Task: inverse folding
């Protein structure tokens, strides 16, 4: 056979890739794909800093590819990409501090890569901003170059690999991934069709498939490993504990949720002389986004290696023994934990923020003792511990805010703290402001944008996560280092020294750093409403007979009294120098109104006010869906996909040809020459008659056609139109009046045969 | 229906995503796996509805060996053009790049063939491998229509000496018929200049042309050609060259080939018939008892016998290249006015 084999032709074609220029529609798909993973990296630089440089680097890569794409060959382009990637890696290497450079062994890099690919967010990398800047230009250059040369499959491979990397690290949300996948599909589809010139023939098929991709991905889940975050449906509210403690203890981020519910089961019991907020984890990096991790903790956890150092100032030792009542991934303790049982010391880690964490799981009924050194301070000491001389590691990690943080948050905080001078007073002012101006509710709509901005300016109510996040952000805008802490409140005190802690006691609060004192707890969530809702939940669970709601001794007390002795005011009783300033009304907090501000009154909040509290339903359903306004980005995307899918599908399956045909029948259109008008009128008539009687047979003249129809009762008017047509068609003169008459007659006939209107007209 | 490389890649990516989601958490992998599944399902549905198209080939005219011509494939019966790879089978003796990507049902697929050998060649059947919109699945559709092309043997130009001999044949024929009186008539546009009677024209003021009364009766020259098995091609070339040269000088020809005998006069039709016969002829021997020119071909060469004299054909012809000139519609050839000084 002398035919050329298909492989020869293929390679010849691939070798001759040509520059398609910027007008090929498939380039839009390639652009979407590139933008999807670039946006992930941009978000990283927004959180960490350096977004302007990043934008410049990416823009430069685009420009380079556009300019060089005309004449650069593929091999040279790959070389340029390799140079970019190597250069980026070098930049990153030298940006990492000296001490960390020693960690760049091959094994370590491989480990880190594996960790990234199995779900570690890129935000956890050291110098994540520089990393983003270093890694972006290479793939952008190569994929855009390939797209400009018409090699769409190659471009999608490069861009898709970059996007896949971020999907695996978990930094790419569902919306971003979907945009990237749509872009890839559009590029490949339009490229395949464009190569053979079948775009006009098959674009509707492509549009239907892409729309189906979007709609199905937004509503279905086909992968195991827990539900991926669906774009629209909020299928049942998560529990507070699950959000804050449960899986967050082992993963490294907390994501702000919408409505949340309380779980009444007992989680653990704590034996301790004093009641404290039992902390589980602290978070330093704030991203503000509600679709990925809102709070991320950076840094590696180190294995526990003997007694740790305590707070920088005075402290007292507190021993606490936690007995798990169900399996736990956390080791709650008061700040600051320094020692743990020898029996479990080899299975304990210390996180970068200073809390303890078990490497495995704590089994039910297992008891573990933790020793903490709780900082001691007076209000005056806190006031005096003002100034900007924070240790470098504190100011680096705990003053961070995304560059896109809105100005109005800063301004509002400045207003709130206008009258205060010291950091401590400012913190108290912010705490009070949030307590009194926001209401407590477990039913909220998760905001789209930045959490703090939304809570401060758009939301009326929220729960502890919102309060605590907003307070930390407000403090940071004023240059005060603060961090977000999750854990449990002290729980229900059943005897002296024993506390029963349930899932609903999981909580989020704030720690503020004071030089020479250390981290001090603050809690902006109004405790009265919170406790009310918690009590109500426990009562409800008891009445329903839920299992594990109580352990021995906890059934009698119907009010869960929460002790919050860690707040500065209550701590002052243990020191001799109690401030006698007007606000120094310190109480040893066993009443449910844990005092917050200098005065006794809690402005705006009273215990037991049930009106402010709404307990979340188990699910969201029960009300009719209302049209959300303004629509979120996801909803706009879904709507668009639906519209495109319907229109394209209609064209694909011929739903419109019928419509077009009907319109054509009814409309004569502009009048032109009499002859042409009569001919068109006759054509319409014929179409109408073929629908009602039969088609005109090939070879049958109009006259005999109308005659034979006349035998079965055809209107005389139709016959007359036929006669006019004959005269026009076979050359006799016809004038305007004839044409108008013909058109009018046919219009009449058509309308008379319309289902409803016709009946009226005929009578 | 089978997976393409792209389709295989998509399946691998989806499977890997599925596995990674199960092992390490779902993240946004659903937004990758589900579209992949949708694309594959859509590809399957699309391919199922592909019709087997009807094929119409626009063939080039029959031409000489060594020429290149274009073939157009038009697909009909496809209401909705789809992307596909068309491969047309070419028989031996035709070479060309007969495969390409095209919108099946849209613009025709055009490719070039070169005639390598003389004879009948077949084009087809064609294979259409249809692809879905993304190129993930493909389906092979076989279109059985075939068409045929004829390639003429190379025709060589004969040298002066040979042309003399041929002319001699004509004259010989004609001198026997010289009884008839040649009429003189006025020159008409289109008359060959060699028919002009210069002597007579000098006497008058206008050109006069000798009209040979017996022109129509010039008897045909018989050429007989035989060949051994290896010499069939050479025989065909030699026969074509000689007979066409005869036709050039308006001598009717009767060609006796092993397969058939043709009698032609000068003109387009005649040339075509000769070339066809030469293209189709096979090895064998022809009855050459009363032939004026006898050609005998073996694997080494062709001998031409005229009037008892034998020549080697390679010596008769001019140059090593063929004189393949296209035959124009009106039967003329570019150098129709080449004259031979008698």
Result:
């Amino acid at each position: 056979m002398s035919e050329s084999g298909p492989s020869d032709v293929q390679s010849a074609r691939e070798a001759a890739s040509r520059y398609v220029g910027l007008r090929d529609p498939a380039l839009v798909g390639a652009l979407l794909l590139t933008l999807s993973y670039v946006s992930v990296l941009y978000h990283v630089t927004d959180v960490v800093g350096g977004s302007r440089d990043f934008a410049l680097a990416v823009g430069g890569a685009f420009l380079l590819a556009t300019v060089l794409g005309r004449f650069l060959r593929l091999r040279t382009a790959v070389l340029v990409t390799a140079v970019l990637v190597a250069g980026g890696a070098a930049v990153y290497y030298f940006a990492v501090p000296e001490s960390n450079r020693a960690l760049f062994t091959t094994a370590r890099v491989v480990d880190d890569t594996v960790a990234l690919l199995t779900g570690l967010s890129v935000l956890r990398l050291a110098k994540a901003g520089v990393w983003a800047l270093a890694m972006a230009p290479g793939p952008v250059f190569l994929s855009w170059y390939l797209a400009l040369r018409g090699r769409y499959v190659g471009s999608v491979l490069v861009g898709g690999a970059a996007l896949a990397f971020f999907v695996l690290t978990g930094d790419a949300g569902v919306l971003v991934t979907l945009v990237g996948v749509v872009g890839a599909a559009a590029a490949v589809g339009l490229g395949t069709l464009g190569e053979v010139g079948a775009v006009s023939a098959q674009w509707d098929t492509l549009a239907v498939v892409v729309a189906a991709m979007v709609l199905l991905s937004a509503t279905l889940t086909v992968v195991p490993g827990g539900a991926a975050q669906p774009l629209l449906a909020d299928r049942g509210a998560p529990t507070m504990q699950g959000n804050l403690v449960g899986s967050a203890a082992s993963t490294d981020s907390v994501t702000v949720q919408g409505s949340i519910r309380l779980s009444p089961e007992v989680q653990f019991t704590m034996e301790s002389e004093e009641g404290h907020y039992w902390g589980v984890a602290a978070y330093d990096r704030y991203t503000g986004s509600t679709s990925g991790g809102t709070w991320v903790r950076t840094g590696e956890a180190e294995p526990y290696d003997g007694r740790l150092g305590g707070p920088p100032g005075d402290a007292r030792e507190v021993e606490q023994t936690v007995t798990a009542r169900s399996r736990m991934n956390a080791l709650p303790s008061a700040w600051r934990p320094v020692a743990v049982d020898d029996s479990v010391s080899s299975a304990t880690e210390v996180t970068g923020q200073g809390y303890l964490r078990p490497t495995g799981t704590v089994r039910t009924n297992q008891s573990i003792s933790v020793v903490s050194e709780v900082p001691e301070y007076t209000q005056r000491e806190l006031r005096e511990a003002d100034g900007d001389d924070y240790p470098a590691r504190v100011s680096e990690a705990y003053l961070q805010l995304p560059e896109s943080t809105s100005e109005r948050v800063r301004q509002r905080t400045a207003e709130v703290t206008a009258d205060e001078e010291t950091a401590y007073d400012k913190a108290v002012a912010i705490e009070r402001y949030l307590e009194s101006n926001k209401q407590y509710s477990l039913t909220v709509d998760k905001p789209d944008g930045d959490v703090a901005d939304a809570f401060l300016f758009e939301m009326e109510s929220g729960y502890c996560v919102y309060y605590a996040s907003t307070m930390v952000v407000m403090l940071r805008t004023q240059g005060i280092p603060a961090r977000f802490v999750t854990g449990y409140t002290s729980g229900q005190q059943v005897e002296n020294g024993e506390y029963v802690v349930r899932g609903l006691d999981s909580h989020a609060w704030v720690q503020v750093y004071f030089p020479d004192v250390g981290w001090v707890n603050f809690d902006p969530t109004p405790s009265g409403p919170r406790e009310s809702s918690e009590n109500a939940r426990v009562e409800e669970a008891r009445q329903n007979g839920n299992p594990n709601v109580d352990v021995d001794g906890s059934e009698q007390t119907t009010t869960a009294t929460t002790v919050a002795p860690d707040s500065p005011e209550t701590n002052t009783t243990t020191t001799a120098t109690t401030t006698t300033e007007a606000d120094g009304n310190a109480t040893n907090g066993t009443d449910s109104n844990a005092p917050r501000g200098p005065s006794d009154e809690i402005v705006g909040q009273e215990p037991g006010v049930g009106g402010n509290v709404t307990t979340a339903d188990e699910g969201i359903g029960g009300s009719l869906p209302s049209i959300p306004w303004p629509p979120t980005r996801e909803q706009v995307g879904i709507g668009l996909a639906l519209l495109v899918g319907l229109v394209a599908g209609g064209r694909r399956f011929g739903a419109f040809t019928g419509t077009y045909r009907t319109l054509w029948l009814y409309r004569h259109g502009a009048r032109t020459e009499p002859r042409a008008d009569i001919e068109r009128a006759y054509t319409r008539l014929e179409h109408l008659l073929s629908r009602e009687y039969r088609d005109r047979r090939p070879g049958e003249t109009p006259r005999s056609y109308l005659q034979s129809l006349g035998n079965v009762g055809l209107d005389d008017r139709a016959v007359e139109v036929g006669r006019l047509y004959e005269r026009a068609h076979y050359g006799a003169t016809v004038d305007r009046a004839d044409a108008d008459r013909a058109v009018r007659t046919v219009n009449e006939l058509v309308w008379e045969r319309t289902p409803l209107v016709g009946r009226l007209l005929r009578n | 229906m089978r997976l393409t490389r792209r389709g295989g890649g998509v399946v691998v990516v989806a499977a890997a995503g599925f596995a990674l989601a199960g092992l390490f958490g779902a993240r946004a992998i659903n937004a990758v796996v589900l579209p992949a599944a949708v694309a594959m399902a859509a590809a399957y549905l699309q391919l199922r509805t592909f019709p087997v198209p009807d094929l119409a080939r626009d063939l080039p005219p029959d031409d000489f060996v060594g020429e290149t011509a274009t073939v157009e494939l038009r697909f009909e019966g496809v209401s909705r053009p789809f992307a596909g790879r068309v491969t047309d089978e070419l028989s031996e003796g035709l070479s060309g790049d007969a495969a390409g990507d095209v919108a099946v049902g849209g613009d025709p697929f055009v490719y070039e063939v070169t005639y390598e050998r003389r004879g009948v060649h077949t084009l087809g059947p064609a294979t259409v491998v249809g692809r879905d919109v993304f190129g993930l699945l493909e389906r092979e559709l076989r279109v059985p229509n075939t068409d045929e092309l004829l390639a003429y043997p190379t025709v060589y130009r004969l040298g002066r000496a040979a042309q003399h001999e041929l002319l001699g044949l004509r004259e010989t024929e004609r001198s026997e018929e010289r009884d008839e009186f040649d009429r003189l008539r006025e020159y008409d546009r289109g008359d060959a200049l060699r028919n002009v009677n210069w002597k007579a024209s000098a006497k008058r003021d206008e050109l006069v042309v000798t009209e040979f009364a017996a022109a129509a009766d010039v008897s045909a020259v018989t050429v007989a050609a035989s060949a051994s098995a290896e010499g069939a091609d050479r025989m065909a070339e030699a026969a074509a060259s000689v007979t066409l040269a005869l036709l050039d000088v308006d001598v009717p020809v009767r060609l006796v080939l092993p397969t058939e005998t043709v009698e032609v006069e000068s003109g387009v039709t005649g040339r075509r018939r000769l070339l066809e016969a030469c293209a189709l002829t096979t090895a064998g021997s022809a009855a050459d008892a009363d032939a004026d020119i006898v050609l005998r071909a073996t694997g080494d060469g062709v001998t031409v016998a005229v009037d008892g004299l034998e020549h080697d054909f390679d010596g008769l012809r001019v140059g090593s290249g063929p004189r393949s000139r296209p035959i124009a519609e009106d039967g003329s050839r570019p150098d129709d006015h080449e004259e031979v000084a008698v």
Remarks:
- The first strand of chain A starts at residue 253 and ends at 254.
- The CA atoms of residues 58 and 136 of chain A lie 7 Å apart.
- Residues 19-197 of chain A form one domain.
